[in-house]
Design brief:
This protein is of the alpha/beta class. The protein contains 11 helices and 8 strands. The protein has a single domain, classed as Alpha/Beta hydrolase fold, catalytic domain (Rossmann fold, 3-Layer(aba) Sandwich), CATH 3.40.50. Strand 7, helix 9 and strand 8 form a beta-alpha-beta unit. It is globular and about 45 Å long.
């Protein structure tokens, strides 16, 4: 699992499988491991590229502020380094925001776009939550932090599974590459500054917008805005799961992704 120097940082990435390139960008508080449950289904059909965003996992965590445009440039630099001209691009939550910036800045690099539980701009409630998460990480330990965050990520059905939430918290505490408090703060502020509402019509590649009906962090209205503003985008709402449906309902998510990708014409372009 290599690293490469890009834009002044060491960027960690992982490539598995063969086929058309499929690049996955994780969201807030998550690194490349967040995609683990759907990886077996993806690598059987695609060359899957994952990375740790700056400030997460095994990538560098500089002290200075981050922007989502900057993180999109990190991804573009990675694609140049591994000599991949064009990818199917998938982003979850903040990763979907990074994906939007990437396709807007480099449409020639993106064959198709899948936005999972993402948004173009936060509303008052969302921004308040994200601002609090950015501040809170400096004042509590990781166990309490996870206890505060997870109710916004998973449904009551998931919480009712004995030991499930406790297991996730224990995994986070024991994870060898925990996020630094300053990185979570910078990520939160980058999300607050993000707004693509007036640029979405510039995205012309085939696009799937996928969200769970019970997502309370990035509710359906955010995905509806994306789908309505991106020309010819497809909106799909899953009945199962919440914001963390990659963990709560991985089979449904990967099935929707693969069905969308299967329908694409090989010659589809994003410019």
């Amino acid at each position: 699992m290599p690293k490469v120097q890009i834009n002044g940082i060491d960027l960690f990435y992982d490539i598995k499988g063969k086929g058309e390139p499929l690049l996955l960008i994780a969201g807030f508080l998550c690194d490349h491991a967040y995609w683990s449950l759907i990886m077996p289904s993806l690598v059987s059909q695609y060359q899957v590229i994952r990375l740790d965003n700056r400030g997460m996992g095994r990538s560098s965590a500089p002290e200075n502020p981050y922007s989502l445009k900057q993180m999109a440039n990190d991804v573009a630099g990675l694609l140049d380094h591994i000599a991949i001209d064009k990818v199917h691009l998938v982003g979850h939550s903040m990763g979907g925001q990074i994906a939007q910036e990437l396709v807007l800045a480099h449409p020639e690099k993106v064959e198709s776009l899948i936005l999972l539980s993402s948004l173009a701009k936060g509303d008052g409630l969302f921004n308040s939550i994200i601002e609090t998460w950015g501040d809170l990480c400096k004042n509590v330990d990781l166990k309490l932090y996870e206890k505060v965050v997870l109710p916004w990520i998973f449904t009551d059905t998931f919480y009712s599974i004995p030991g499930m939430i406790e297991g996730l918290i224990e995994f986070a505490i024991r994870y060898p590459f925990p996020p630094a408090a300053h990185s979570l703060y910078h990520h939160s502020r980058a999300m607050l500054d993000f707004d693509t509402t007036n640029r979405l019509q510039q995205i012309h590649c085939p696009t799937l917008v996928l969200v769970a009906k019970q997502d309370i962090l990035t509710p359906l209205k955010f995905s509806q805005q994306l789908a309505q503003s991106i020309p010819n985008a497809e909106l799909l709402v899953l009945n199962g799961g919440g914001h963390g449906f990659l963990i709560e309902s991985p089979d449904a998510v990967v099935s929707a992704m693969l069905n969308f990708l299967r329908k694409l014409k090989p010659a589809s372009l994003c410019n």
